[in-house]
Each structure stands twice: as C-alpha cells, then as structure tokens.
Design goal:
three-stranded antiparallel β-sheet, 61% helix, Rhomboid-like fold, 3 strands, 388 residues, Serine Threonine Protein Phosphatase 5, Tetratricopeptide repeat
Length: 388
C-alpha cells in the first residue's frame, strides 16, 4: 500500500477555506449517514427513477431494489447526471460522497495539497478556484458520459483542480508517501510533487479511461477535467501588471533591434521607461535585450522599493531561453522577492531551481542563506539534499 501523508514545504498561514471545506464535507456526510440505514418507500417516484437509471434489466432491478437506501436516493437526486444535467447539481454534487472511504480519500488529498494553493490565491480566490474547477470537472464528466443517467458525486473533481494548480506552481515540492509493503519495506519516502501528480493523472485516470471508457464506475472525466482546468488557470495567473511603466518620449523603432534604446534609457536612470520597453513590447523583440541589462533593470526596481515590478522583470527573464549565471541570478532575485512578499513556498521553487542549475559559489551561498531564512517561515522543508 502506498498512501500520501503530507508535503513540504508548507506556509505557516492557516488554510481556513481548506479546513472549512473539509468540515463541510464531513458534516454533510454525517447528517445524511442515518439515511443509509433506511429503506425508501416503494411508492416514492424517485425510487423507480433510480432503478430505471442504474438497473436496466429485470434481474438487476430486483437485486438493486433490495439494497437501495434513502441515502442512495439523495445521491441520485442531488448528484450530477450527465444525461439530465441540472445547474444546481453542479454545486451539490461536490459535497456528497458514496461512502466513508470515498470521503476519507478525498479529504486527505485536500488536506495535503490545499494549503499551499490557498496561500498563493488568498482565501476568496481559492474558494472561487475550488468551486470553478469543480464545475469544470462535472462538465468534463459530461463530455465522457454524455448519455449516462447515473450521477457522479464527490469532491474529487474540485480537488483535482487544486492538484492542477499545485502541479504548475510547486514543481519543486516533495510529497511524503507512506509505503507499506510488509514485511519487505515500511517507511515514509519523498518524491517530487510533479512525479506523484503525473502518476495520478496518467496511471490512475487517463490510462483507465482509455482502457475502460466511461463505464468504469469512476468519474475519470471529472478528475481530468478538474485537473486540466486548474493547470490552465494557474498558467494564466501572472505577476501583477507593472503600474510604473512609462512610455518613453522616443518611440522604439518599428522594426529591427531596439536594444540600444533600452540600454540608453537604462543608463540615464529612466527605469519606468525601461520597464515599458521591456514588458509592453512583443517578447520576440525583447529577447534581443541582453540578459545583464534586464537584470540591471530588475535590481534598479528592487532598490527603488518597487518589488512587484522587479519580480515581473525577473520572471520575464526566466521565461526567456536564458542560461548560465544570468538565469541563476534571476532565480535568486525572484526567490528573494517572493520570500519578502510572504510567499515562501513559491520562493522555494526558485531557490531550489537555482541550486539545481549549476550556480557559482557565491550564488550557491546566497541561495542557501535564503533557504535557511525560508525554513523559519515554513512548517517544514524536504529532507536530505533538498535542505540547504
């Protein structure tokens, strides 16, 4: 048995929305649980509608009728049925579960992966993302099982959306896995987050979907739809648009290299105009600006106390095919500013990457100093070589 039991690093903030979502899911389950021990009246029209949906043959109908409970009818009525979609079921289906194991597995994943995403998005942004990817998950399920009258229930689609955000934003994080292969091996190991999440997507969802189609009893379409909705949304969230960019009096040339203009503006200390030239021009043109000039602008903005603008410039440089010392310096700059801005887990991604990209001795020392500071702002850091 292999079971995820945690991740690192984690911010020290309290994930109120994650905890509230877990509490709400558990509360709904407990409130409805007594219905699992009650038989529905045979004259209930929902009972016959339920049998028509899940038991097409006469023999199956008799067997299912003997086992059906009022809890099953609640799931049927408030779950999301692709063949008969109802808008309100997009929401209610997220808070219903087919049993204790279903609930426990979903809440474990939400508890492990939710706090970092919530810290990055903020409480209200995280709630909107959770519900939005939950809706996208139901639509993904409908795309696969478009003619099925059997409802899908559970928080796994929305949680898959959280995993999509996590996959994009926290590639250097480590997931703690409890491996219980008695009597040969019993221990907690750490694996890169992207490896664990790639296995979740490919091995546990995409491959079974291709082999079994939409009739496997698992909402693979919901899991994949939620995950990819979260990943796309995460990729679209950029650094704040610089507010101090100033259009220069001298217009850049319509064609050709305007790197000399950028250099001249930078040398004259007009960093607002340099920022405009870098970030308001097509990326194909700004790649001609030397990396050292871009770093000089970022450091000037940082010294002027314009941290969001400086971060945007560091990230711009990292989005280019930059290598060597300049790329490590950009990693260190982004990590430093994210750490100062209260985003230690995002800072960890850049600082860890800086150490992985062949830094020079003084760069390595700076990265390790920042990681030590980061360790005081997080609950834990990965073990072994992943520590400074």
């Amino acid at each position: 048995m292999i079971l995820p039991v945690g991740d690192s690093p984690n911010p020290r903030s309290t994930p109120w929305i994650t905890w509230s979502l877990i509490a709400l899911n558990v509360l709904v389950f407990l409130l409805l649980l007594p219905l699992a021990f009650e038989r529905p009246p045979h004259d209930d029209p929902r009972f016959h509608e339920f049998l028509d949906a899940v038991a097409p043959s006469a023999e199956e109908r008799v067997a299912v009728a003997r086992q059906t409970t009022r809890y099953d009818l609640v799931l049927f009525e408030h779950g999301f049925r692709p063949a008969a979609p109802r808008p309100w079921a997009l929401l209610t289906a997220m808070f219903l579960h087919g049993g204790l194991a279903h609930l426990a597995g979903n809440m474990l994943f939400l508890w492990i992966f939710g706090n970092n995403v919530e810290h990055r998005l903020g409480h209200l942004g995280y709630l909107a993302a959770y519900l939005g990817t939950g809706v996208a998950a139901s639509l993904g399920d409908m795309a696969i099982r478009w003619d099925s009258p059997v409802p899908s229930v559970g928080a796994s689609g929305a949680i898959s959306g959280v995993l999509g955000f996590y996959f994009v934003w926290f590639p250097k994080n480590r997931v703690h896995l409890w491996v219980f292969l008695f009597p040969f091996f019993m221990d907690v190991i750490e694996l890169p987050a992207r490896v664990v999440l790639a296995v979740y997507v490919l091995v546990h969802n995409l491959l079974p979907l291709l082999l079994a189609g939409g009739d496997a009893g698992v909402a693979y379409g919901a899991h994949l739809g939620g995950f990819f909705a979260g990943a796309v949304a995460a990729a679209l969230v950029h650094a704040a648009r610089p507010e101090g960019a100033e259009e220069p009096a001298e217009r850049p040339p319509a064609t050709g290299d305007f790197a000399p203009l950028f250099r001249r503006v930078l040398d004259e200390g007009r960093i607002g105009e340099a920022l405009w030239l870098l970030l308001r021009q097509p990326p194909a043109r700004t790649r001609a600006i030397p990396a050292e000039d871009v770093l000089q602008l970022a450091r000037g903005l940082e010294s002027a106390g314009r941290s969001p603008d400086a971060l945007a410039v560091y990230l711009h440089l990292l989005a280019r095919p930059t290598a060597g010392r300049a790329r490590v310096d950009a990693r260190l700059g982004a990590g430093r500013l994210l750490l100062l801005g209260g985003q230690p887990t995002l800072a960890y991604q850049h600082l860890r990457a800086a150490l992985d990209e062949g830094p020079e001795p003084e760069q390595s020392r700076e990265a390790e100093d920042l990681l030590r500071e980061l360790g005081r702002l997080t609950r834990s850091l990965p073990r072994g070589r992943w520590r400074p």
